[in-house]
Design brief:
The complex is a heterodimer. Chain A is α+β, with helices and mostly antiparallel strands. Chain A contains four helices and six strands, in the order βααβαβαβββ. In chain A, the strands form two sheets. A four-stranded mixed β-sheet of chain A has the order 1-2-4-3. In chain A, strands 5-6 form a two-stranded antiparallel ribbon. In chain A, α2 crosses α3. Chain B has a six-stranded mixed β-sheet with strand order 2-3-1-4-5-6. Classes of the chains: A alpha+beta, B alpha/beta.
Chain lengths: ~130, ~230
């Protein structure tokens, strides 16, 4: 990725820990994700993005689209858990849940429901 | 009725107007029509305008990203059972995470230059849609009731609206089609009101208008109490 789109021999799937994500500011997190995805990597985030971060990522993705090399992202995750009354009272902040993000020409969502996100990585695309 | 004047209706209209002024500091609420591409946002905008002003908002097409710039129509008044809502309506470009010009060529036989131009404008449209969320008071979120509701775009848009505390009404569109399942949408998003509708045929549009007036007014009352 990045230059002329080429067929992928293998695709990296990186699991990114909550600790690493917590080290970033919101802006740094988006930059990190976008850079990795533009480099052809599929990321599985232990803790996903908030809705506002997701829309920020979509906006920044749109700015980075290069028609022959980067057509955007595929992103699937579960929404933020609703805090219980007790947690609300204690001020516990709910974290967004696990999310998978990858380049749209490689990662395809097959199905998603409350219990399972099925995706497929399609090597050899982009040629 | 007294002296040919509908005092009750006049009172309701005046109180809603003054209520809007108190909450938003203006007469009209800005209502945005949002959703992924090809769910029928512009068809719905056209339906609302046709029903209440006799005008059209924009052109519709089976090719995704037909609307690539937000379109506004100001001073639209809808009425139902003696209540009314004054709105500025914005029809927004579809929000998506990817735009591939090659799909326009392969699926819709568009020529390469036209497809590339459409894709470029579509990316700008997505950005405009996301940014315009800051400028609206309420949202009509349009979803395709023939499709899986758990798309990331739907979830992201709803999450944004919840984070911004914007009142949202889900229009489960395309119920004129055999494969539609508005019940699936209702089950997927039980925390929000879902109104089944066919923007194309106008089926159930009265119910939508009733929900728009009631839901957006109710939400405002809640806000006022805070």
């Amino acid at each position: 990725m990045g230059k002329k789109s080429k067929k992928e021999d293998s695709i990296a799937v990186n699991l990114v820990s909550r600790q690493k994500l917590d080290e970033f500011t919101a802006d740094e997190k988006i930059k990190f994700i976008l850079k990795e995805v533009q480099n052809g990597k599929v990321l599985v985030l232990e803790h996903g993005l908030t809705a506002l971060e997701q829309s920020d990522l979509i906006e920044k993705t749109m700015k980075e689209i290069k028609q022959d090399t980067f057509i955007g992202i595929e992103m699937e995750g579960y929404g933020e858990e609703k805090p219980s009354f007790l947690k609300k009272l204690l001020g516990v902040i709910q974290k967004p849940r696990m999310t998978v993000i990858g380049p749209a020409h490689l990662l395809k969502t097959i199905n998603k429901d409350n219990n399972m996100i099925e995706t497929k990585i399609i090597p050899g695309k982009g040629g | 009725m007294l002296g040919g004047i509908d005092w009750m209706g006049l009172f309701k209209r005046r109180s809603l107007k003054s209520f809007l002024r108190r909450i938003f500091g203006k007469k009209q609420a800005k209502i945005g029509i949002y959703g992924p591409p090809n769910v029928g946002k512009t068809t719905l905008a056209n339906r609302i305008l046709q029903d209440w002003t006799g005008e059209q908002m924009g052109s519709v097409s089976e090719i995704p990203h037909e609307t690539r710039m937000a379109a506004w129509k100001n001073d639209v008044k809808i009425e139902n059972n003696g209540s009314s809502l004054y709105m500025d309506i914005v029809d927004t470009p579809g929000i998506s995470t990817k735009v591939d010009f090659k799909e326009f060529i392969s699926k819709f036989k568009m020529d390469k230059d036209e497809a590339k131009q459409r894709a470029k404008e579509a990316t700008e449209g997505v950005i405009e849609s996301i940014r315009s969320l800051d400028d609206v008071d309420g949202i009509l979120l349009v979803m395709d009731s023939t499709k899986d509701p758990f798309t990331q775009v739907n979830v992201t848009i709803l999450g944004n609206l919840e984070a911004r505390d914007l009142p949202v009404l889900i229009a489960a569109n395309k119920i004129d089609q055999k494969t539609s399942s508005p019940a699936t949408l209702k089950a997927a998003f039980p925390q929000h009101p879902v109104v089944p509708i066919s923007a194309l045929t106008g089926y159930n549009s009265d119910d939508l208008y009733s929900h728009m007036i009631n839901h957006f007014s109710k939400k405002r009352k809640k806000k006022k109490r805070r």
